[in-house]
Every structure is written in C-alpha cells, then in structure tokens.
Amino acid sequence: MDPNTDLRLELSKQSRESHDKYDYWLLAVAASAIALAVHDTENATLQWSQMPLGCAVILWGISFFFGCRKQIGTQLALGAHDTKLQIQSGIFPATSTDANNIRFGVQTVTTWLNENEDRLRRAKRAQFGTLIAGCICFLGWHVLTMALRSKGIPTTQP
Question: CB–CB of 156/47 below 8 Å?
C-alpha cells in the first residue's frame, strides 16, 4: 500500500471541506445581500431610481439559485462516485461479474461524472459572477441615491 494514501485522503477531505465552506459562504452572502436590500427599502415607494437595486436583488437571487444547483450537483457526484466504486468492486446490486458489464458500468458513470463536473464548473462561475454583478448594481444604486440626495431629490433611503 502506498504510504502517501492517508495523506492524500486527508488532503482530499480538507479540500472538500474548504470548497463546501466557500460555497456556503457565497450562498450566505447572496441571501444576506437580498435581506439588506429588502430591509433598506422596507418603507420605500417604488421609484425609477431603485432599478439598479432591483437588478442587484435579481442577480443575487440568480447567484443563490446557482449555488443551490451546485450543491445538489455535488451531492449527486458524491453518490455517483460511490456507485462507481461499488460497480468496480462488483458489489453494486445490479452488477454482474462479467468484466465487459463492469467496464460498461464504470464508463457510463465516468461519462456522467465528467459531464456533471462541467455543469458544476459553469454553476460555480455563474454563482460568483452574478454575486459580483449584483454588488456592482448595488453600488451603482447607492451612488445614484447619493447623487439624487445631493441635488435635493428625495430617495428611498432614510
């Protein structure tokens, strides 16, 4: 047995935990940003100057959606990896002992995993990109309301 196996397993576990924490942090940021926008406009009337804020909330909602989608895809991938190992070991319930069937089963799961990995990569990029775009819209809204207030035009912010 390879003496580095335990170290690789530990590094893999730490990497997975780090990715999970980051993903949940991004979800929390998006949810918190939406809550802040709702709180800041709690007693506001609808005005055109709020459009950048509305765009920010929509983008943060999309970010949250892609974050949830990524978490679901990650859970499915973990299950598929387990299935692949079961097929390779010959203990998967519907697996025959025929080497061709085992090879086909492993190839099928591997193909799905590769496709899922691409989907997860796209979801991760979309999650982060829409979160940042929402922040830019929020800052635009904030600057716009400051400019309107400096000209004496009433805004939704207290």
Answer: yes
Q: What is the pLDDT of residues 44-55, one digit of tens each?
A: 888 899 999 999
How big, in percent rounded to 5, are the helix, strand and coil portions of the chain? 80, 0, 20
Name the residue among 74, 93, 73 with its Cα closest to residue 83: 93
Q: Nearest to residue 106, comparing CAs of 93, 87, 92?
A: 87
Structure tokens at 50: 């709020």
Q: How confident is the model at residue 91 (pLDDT cuts 50, 70, 90)?
A: confident
Q: Which amino acid is at 68?
A: C
Report the 10 Å Cβ neighbour count for 157. Answer: 15
